[in-house]
Design goal:
The complex is a heterodimer of chains A (about 325) and B (about 280). Chain A has 14 helices and two strands; from the N terminus they run ααααααβαααααβααα. A two-stranded antiparallel ribbon of chain A has the order 1-2. Chain A starts with a helix and ends in a 6-residue tail after the last helix. Chain B is an alpha/beta fold. Chain B has one domain: P-loop containing nucleotide triphosphate hydrolases (Rossmann fold), CATH 3.40.50. Chain B has a six-stranded mixed beta sheet, sandwiched between helices. In chain B, strands 2-1-4-5 form a four-stranded antiparallel beta sheet, with helices on one face. In chain B, strand 4 and strand 5 form a beta hairpin. Chain B is globular. Classes of the chains: A mainly alpha (about 325), B alpha/beta (about 280). Bound molecules: adenosine-5'-diphosphate (ADP) and magnesium ion (MG).
Chain lengths: ~325, ~280
């Protein structure tokens, strides 16, 4: 086996970043719904992602919930947050962006409260981080994956450690969850309600003329989006065994970068491709970041430069149409 | 049947650039009547349509559609009774969505939308048939995005969407004005066919006097927020465009006397400026 391939298989880093990317896939689907379908710049994500993480963590640790049933609970909490943003914007006529920032700000306090429930004795730090060693949804695939990969590897004289096998188990579980979400979203967005939602982001005048209440559509859309984002928060926190209130910081940019990468790799001619592209973009973004950190170590970048790198990726992607126009060969007139 | 009673509409009320867009409009349109509306720019033609559609609430007065008082009903709920085509061909359709998806949205105008599939086989057949009746070849482009269509095709599609579920009233606001002559003629022809076929109560604004007399059963002329001419029946049948212009000039002269007084009071000189009202 070529050495880079075996490195790829046996390193913890690559399967690790793919697993995290897939855990973030629901975030990217959520961002796709608000930014691309509804054209509503929603920053609720800053609070709804850690909300999902906190709700799942606390229900699990403090209240002993079954680890699967914490996921719908987290999703519901995020949906309520998203609906709140949409209602604030519509009923009080607050600018949508501002409404979402306000909700995210309020969620910060709420998340601290929730996280405060999580542990009996806690260190009173500002972020109230909680670490937990509890059942994780990816556990379900760990056993089979370990026996499969470790055994095969021993036979092939390569060595995949149980820790690496666990990352493949996570990839498998997150992949199944992501596939289910994509299928569900694709179904929903082609129902009568889903079509009305899509039209709302396209032409509000037409939507009203066809008897659709655009406010209701935005409430549904933002609830759906932030529900997905909170679900992702729950998956992420549980997989990492960690939650605090800063998990959502800057995440909107990660989401946007992933959406854009997805669009470049899989130009969205139809909805199916757009959704698959968003999910793929989530993974590719992680892979790109890992790649950047690996290679740029040589040129003096470090882990803390991650956000700078992300910002540059998004700026370049956003500027791409202008750049392309600028460099395009001028047509003779 | 549409009834407007004592409709007053101001824009920017109480501000220096206040506009009295509709001045005590009283209008009854009977079932199946096809009314064409003409008048100079800013006369209030679009505003009257928007008051009926619920885009704006009137400052005073009452709007009834088929005996229902809809004055306070929001636009999206009134859409159950109202079909609309706008001047701008981009306004009536969702460009990023396909022809069949747009039609699916229109099929449920005014009804609850649930988790049924938007476009199924049966509906697709229904849409194909309806599109074929337009004679534009759109029946073969069900899954084309609407933004790829020409202005005329888009406007014909909007007309179809407005009438796919029979509306109690069809509102057309200069819906051929932005099209090239060929497309405009085609859309006007489709309009006449559909209105006649479904016996739709229709209000059509047009800038084309010829068209205003050729189509429909009744013609309104508006000027400075008022209906200054309302012709139907035999009187209308023999009317030429020249007659219409002459009558417009005559009525306008009368009105101008009032307007001039107001202009003197404010010192305004431009004819286009709207005199403030007391
Ligand atoms: N949304 C609005 N805000 C302020 N003024 C408006 C608005 N809509 C129309 N008006 C004014 O009301 C008057 C009537 O406009 P409109 O009904 O659009 O005329 P038209 O007969 O050309 O369709 C015009 O003076 C116009 O400037
Ligand atoms: Mg107008």
């Amino acid at each position: 086996m070529p050495s880079f391939l075996s490195d790829l298989l046996t390193s913890t880093q690559w399967p690790g970043s793919i697993a995290i990317g897939l855990a973030y896939a629901a975030v990217v689907l959520g961002v796709f719904i608000t930014f691309r379908i509804l054209a509503f710049p929603d920053l609720t994500i800053d609070g709804s992602f850690p909300l999902g993480a906190a709700v799942a963590a606390v229900l699990l640790m403090r209240f002993g919930w079954n680890h699967w049933s914490t996921l719908p609970a987290a999703t519901f909490a995020g949906a309520v947050a998203g609906a709140t943003t949409a209602l604030l914007a519509a009923r009080l006529r607050i600018n949508g962006l501002l409404a979402s920032i306000l909700v995210a700000l309020a969620l910060n306090s709420i998340n601290l409260r929730i996280l405060g429930q999580g542990v009996a004795e806690r260190v009173p730090t500002a972020n109230l981080p909680i670490a937990f060693n509890a059942p994780d949804v990816t556990d379900i695939a760990k056993g089979p994956m370990r026996s499969l990969l470790v055994d095969v590897c021993l036979a092939a004289d390569e060595c995949i450690t149980p820790a690496v096998a666990d990352r493949y188990a996570a990839i498998l579980v997150f992949l199944v969850i992501t596939a289910l979400l994509v299928i569900l979203l694709h179904w929903f967005l082609n129902t009568e309600l889903g079509l009305a939602l899509r039209a709302t982001g396209d032409n509000e005048q037409m939507v009203r003329a066809q008897g659709i209440n655009p406010t209701a559509m935005r409430v549904i859309g933002l609830a759906l989006s932030n529900g997905l984002i909170a679900l992702s928060g729950a998956l992420y926190a549980r997989y990492q065994g960690f939650a605090d209130v800063t998990l959502g910081r800057g995440l909107i940019i990660v989401g946007l970068a992933s959406v854009i990468i997805g669009e470049v790799v899989l130009p969205p001619s139809v909805l199916r491709r757009a959704l698959l592209g968003a999910a793929l973009g989530a993974v590719l973004y992680r892979v790109l970041i890992t790649l950047a950190l690996n290679t740029t170590g040589n040129i003096g970048l470090q882990e803390s430069d991650l956000q700078l790198i992300t910002a540059v990726i998004v700026i370049v992607a956003l500027a791409a149409p202008q750049l392309r126009r600028y460099f395009a060969p001028r047509r003779a007139t | 049947m549409i009834e407007l009673q004592g409709i007053q509409k101001y824009f920017n009320r109480g501000e220096p650039h206040e506009v009295h867009a509709l001045r005590n409009i009283n209008l009854q349109i009977a079932h199946g009547e096809f009314v064409t509306v003409i008048g100079s720019n800013g006369a209030g033609k679009s505003t009257i349509l928007n008051i009926i559609a619920g885009v704006y609430a009137p400052d005073d007065g009452k709007v009834e559609i088929d005996g229902r008082d809809v004055t306070r009903l929001p636009e999206y709920r009134r859409a159950a009774f109202v079909g609309r085509v706008f001047q701008n061909p981009l306004d009536g359709t969702a460009g990023s969505m396909t022809v069949e998806q747009n039609l699916a949205l229109a099929l449920r105008r005014g009804e609850r939308r649930g988790l049924q599939r938007g476009v199924g086989r049966q509906r697709r057949n229904q849409f194909r048939e309806a599109l074929a009746s337009l004679g534009l070849g759109l029946e073969d482009r069900l899954d084309a995005r609407v933004r790829l269509l020409s202005g005329g095709q888009r406007q014909a599609l909007t007309l179809l969407m407005a009438t796919l579920r029979r509306p109690d009233v069809l509102l057309l606001d200069e819906h051929t004005a932005a099209l090239d002559p060929g497309a405009a003629a085609k859309v006007a022809e489709l309009t006449a066919t559909i209105v006649e076929r479904d016996r739709l109560t229709t209000l059509m604004v047009t800038h084309n006097m010829q068209q205003a007399l050729a189509l429909g059963t009744r013609t309104l002329m508006m000027h400075q927020g008022q209906i200054i001419l309302d012709i139907s029946g035999p009187e209308r049948r023999n009317l030429t465009v020249q007659d219409l212009i002459a009558r417009f000039a005559a009525v306008r002269k009368d009105k101008e006397v009032i307007a001039d007084d107001e202009l003197l009071l404010t010192g305004a000189t431009s004819e286009n400026q709207h005199p403030p009202t007391t």
